[in-house]
Amino acid sequence: MPTKDEWLDRWLRDAHAMEQQAEQVLRAQIQRLENYPQFRRRIEEHLAETERQRTLVEGCLARRGTAPSGLKDAAGKLTAMVQGLTGLVAGDEVVKAALVSYAFEQFEAISYRILASAAEAAGDMETARVCAEICREEEAMAAWLANHAPEATHTFLDRDMADLEEAKR
């Protein structure tokens, strides 16, 4: 039966894989959002946050005397690659990006809330602090997406209608 520390280490390795997956997904989104500069700019900012978050998780793992899981990291990267490929065929990329990103940010936020609680239970207050900090960043990104999804949707629909009118001519 795993101890609190062993569970925390496992979940930190999961979080590391999750951040690597997020990095790949965000990079793919950035490449396809050239017509949505505000959305793209915020995704670029969040990519920088995500890279820093991965580094923070690596620090937690190192401080705890363990390391990321190569297998979990590879699985996360594979999942991100598949997600990126599905975006290539979506004509409504910005809308899909808002949907997927919002859901993923909420998933990340609750993951870090759980990690902070587990770290407290294991007596690792520094990991708890780091995870609570990352949780706040993920919640902020989810809130930004929720607030800006309507604007991105309107922009997409306006562009789509303009393209339709152009095609009729």
TrEMBL record:
This is Ferritin-like metal-binding protein YciE. SUPFAM superfamilies: Ferritin-like. It comes from Chelatococcus caeni. InterPro entries: DUF892_YciF-like, Ferritin-like, Ferritin-like_SF. It holds the Pfam family DUF892. Transmembrane segments: none annotated.
